[in-house]
Amino acid sequence: xxxxxYSEAQNGRRGRAVAPPAHxxxxxxxxxxxTARDLNRALLARQFLLERSTLPLVPTLERIAGLQTQxxxxxxxxxxxxxxxxxxxxxTTALEQRRxxxxxxxxxxxxxxxARDYWLCLAAIKExxxxxxxxTRKELAHxxxxxxxxxxxxxxxxxxxxxxxxxxxxxxxxxxxxxWGGVSEWVDMVRVPPSGTWEQRRADLYASADNWVRPATxxxxxxxxxxxxxxxxxxxxASIRDVAGWAGIPPTKFRAVMEQIPLRRFRDxxxxxxxxxxxxPRPDPNAPAPVRFLPTWDATLLVHARxxxxxxxxxxxxxFNTKTPHSVPTFLVDGAVAGTWRFERGRxxxxxxxxxxxxxxxxxxxxxxxxxxxxSA
Length: 377
What we know:
- With 377 residues, this protein is an alpha+beta fold.
- It has helices at residues 2-11, 36-46, 57-63, 73-82, 88-96, 115-136, 145-155, 163-172, 180-186, 209-212, 220-235, 240-247, 252-259, 316-319, 358-376, and strands at residues 32-33, 67-68, 100-104, 110-114, 161-162, 189-191, 205-208, 264-267, 273-276, 292-294, 330-333, 336-344, 347-352.
- It has 15 helices and 13 strands.
């Protein structure tokens, strides 16, 4: 997690502009320029942060392309902010019923996704993540990772196992401790309840995905296409680099796939190409954005969505930095991060980055009280 926070902080620095690649797209109309405000409202609408979702839990989770849950309560808070009448037990029940799956997926971080999305996500990322691990852990090149993976699969064959037990097994076999970091790239494991829930927050109980989720076989190309559609539906309009940054795999993986999908083409204010699903919502940029509270590691704030300015750049170091590797919970005013919050002694304590206008403060206080009631229930 520390490495991810450091990467996010480093990526927050703007780099040299790179000319976008050409694409063969089905839409041949003139390219409209989208302002940061256009993109901000599109993102908020697709993430159900303009209007809360009235869909059931699993379709809502699919529409927002899953939730990052390095800290288990983040999933619950993220859904509370995005769904009407969300109850904590609804997510725990969905995890127990295996309709929602928690696994190490995008960017090798923990995500909650639907059972249907799990196998498609895995098909898209698996080979790229293995290659990334081999590239970045050359000091372990002598280790037979396939043998390590086979040992872990055997341990998981009949029942879920705790992370501590699996690590102890590897240590007893004289495998270097650092090899544990690569196990999830080779072994299809999911984190199963009661761990990784509101009630038991440490997600350290693992099961074989084949035993826990109904198996499904997908090609890498099918998985990549699915990720493109999920990402654009949840975060678009966006570039290929945005999709790749969110997924944690090289942009080259997506280029051929995106050429086969009928997409609309836009430009941002810097002239960079943006792609989108034809019927995805692009609301009026003047649409009012209500106050919303976000958990730690909410994907809307990561660098792949920076052009939406949901996280103003001058605030990025306050949310992602090496001193707070867990990120911090934030709240939005008019569609942008305006401060941080924490739950303490039955109250949501606010820390605005700048003084809030009186009307906005009243709305923030009202939403904070609702969140406190949810967290206290």
